[in-house]
Specification:
Chain lengths: 326, 326
Amino acid sequence: MTSIDMIRAAATRINGHARRTPLLSSPFLDEIAGRRVLIKPECLQQTGSFKYRGARSAISALDDATRAKGVIAFSSGNHAQGIALAAREMGAPAVIIMPEDAPRLKIDNTRAFGAEVVLYDRAREDRDSIGDRLSRDRGLTLIKPFDEPQVIAGQGTTGLEIAEDASALGITEADVLVCCGGGGLTSGIALALEADAPGLRARPVEPQGFDDVTRSLSAGEIQRNNSMEGGLCDAILTPQPGTLTFPIMHRLCGPGLVVSDEDALRAMALAWQRLKLVAEPGGAVALAAALFQGAETRGDTIIAVISGGNVDRPVFDRALATLAQD
Amino acid sequence: MTSIDMIRAAATRINGHARRTPLLSSPFLDEIAGRRVLIKPECLQQTGSFKYRGARSAISALDDATRAKGVIAFSSGNHAQGIALAAREMGAPAVIIMPEDAPRLKIDNTRAFGAEVVLYDRAREDRDSIGDRLSRDRGLTLIKPFDEPQVIAGQGTTGLEIAEDASALGITEADVLVCCGGGGLTSGIALALEADAPGLRARPVEPQGFDDVTRSLSAGEIQRNNSMEGGLCDAILTPQPGTLTFPIMHRLCGPGLVVSDEDALRAMALAWQRLKLVAEPGGAVALAAALFQGAETRGDTIIAVISGGNVDRPVFDRALATLAQD
């Protein structure tokens, strides 16, 4: 189980490798929200998402002999890129298992970060059995995307930084809105805030139709999404909260918030216009909630994490099209 | 004349108001350039450009009685927004004189930052006489966009941060490429580097057809642009280098670099794709030189300032169109 000591140790291990992202703001966004909005831009993190923190934390926590054999991950998205870059930096071989119909750009990017990409046929092959065979044959260590204590610890370093910067600004009470898939980032931030900024409260934000964490928190037990089809926010679509992350979120987080794809696109456009940041849809849901769902949050200040910026042009164009013409 | 002591004093005055921007990088950009590229993203600065630093520095350097009467500036661009926000924060009235055919968005933004915008007819009215009358009648202090010692000092704080962060990375020699209009940012950075990182050398980067600083440095005396018409890089188009900034650049800077509008657009697209940053054309020329003109620079590492991100959608769309289709 991830502890605050593990988060602090992860911060030491990733220091000088992960980026220390600032808190940003814009008077224009404050006006829309009717209060001060502070943004934690993890789209500026290495590989364009917070996932690098957890990847670097988990791989650096392995003993040298284990790390030298290599790591393996299942992902077609931000976790894959985080693992690939962190592994290369530490001289560890990395194998990423991806469906062969994954976007060419994501396959190319993951290879460009130095990973070996193993493609499989979703219809005819079983991902887990391919992974098991590779792990056994080559002694690779599986790094899960969120339900892994050292990954949660790495994501929690985001929360240490939020606590430090909020304190410097004199902020002692605020909701901290976090884009939430499996809950690794949300639970890590919640643990860090519990220790370093107990007046700050993490709250998961999810896309409409994929609100498993919000419903799970409300029900007090893990609920699944009914479907995994459709939706723009691919980075944060997971079937259900993690078995490690859910108890942490249940103990520490405020109620979840749910955002439409349209509002995520509008938040992406405002991030472009007012913050000069590129956000992906799943990375913009927390900002969308901060801007457009003020009635569901409390306090003079709201903090929102932009969790990633890996977006293709067609979706980005859709986002900018939501802006009023100049 | 701006000194390093004035830059350090400006850093103290703007601390907690201007943003401390990080150095960013991407393995993909390193590969294009064939060396390490570090980016100083001043597009993330308050109001979306480095201009806020100089504005805050200059207004905060006024004595209380003078500041309370207010400030005035001529600008339809980034300087206007920097002055407007900094003045509002310090409780000083601000008057910005803009041509009445300036883009509606820039007029609106400047007003939204709290400034009084005075519009004039370029064909029938004289800007300077309007400014003189307002200054005299209301006791306003003119803040020039670059040829003003406290403005140069404020822009120079960018250089203090570059020196500090480069030192932490063990970088002792590098070219520092700076988007250059009148030379306030370039000369300020050059003074800061002279004091804190003498192995780092500032070099101005300009758009093709508007290379007055490059030609002036080469000739050893101030040269003017032949025309001020056309060109995408509106933020850094000035008739000639400043009388205060040129001697500093002449003493301290390496040769200028000149970039095509097309390469500025390509650099904007790569900043979007690889750094998750929004750059404007004039703000992207230094990155363009770092990526596409490697033969004209030296060393294992190159540092490039992205000076601003205030760009309209039609121009941004042109930039993204330079990317290969996914």
